[in-house]
Amino acid sequence: MEILEAYDLTGCAWSAAELAGCDAKTITRYVSVRDRGGDPYAVARRARLIDPFLDKVEELVDRSEGKVRADKVHEPSLPAGQDAAEAFYRVVDAAYERRSVAVTSNIKPSGFDTIMPKTLATTTVDRLLHHAHQVLTDGRSQRLAEALAGKGVVPLT
Known about the structure:
Blueprint: H1 3-10, H2 13-20, H3 24-35, H4 54-63, H5 70-74, H6 82-95, H7 118-129, H8 142-148
Helix pairs in contact: 1-2, 2-3, 6-7
């Protein structure tokens, strides 16, 4: 049952929550948005880190007819600008000692200062590595071996 339909039927957020299968706070939020004349089902688009680089990425994809590698797309945006570095730090800081964070990178933590300002790199790495479990892999790359053997990714036609 729809959230607003359940509320209109029961007139109570708690009862509507049981009918709609969601939290009563969600019901309350949807009803308050509707009462203010808004659309509770509208999704607001939030800014993304890639937005400043999107035109360049689209250009590279178009020029390569969709065959550009992801690492080549990211090259023009490295080193990370101040805004991107601060955004990454804010994500790590918000999760620090509250949530788990998984970061994969081909750059060791000691090398983060090569792609972002040193002060931000230091504080970000400090928060990432405090209470951290690092998984370091070593040995032959399975993807490289498959690519060299011709068993790698086949482009879509």
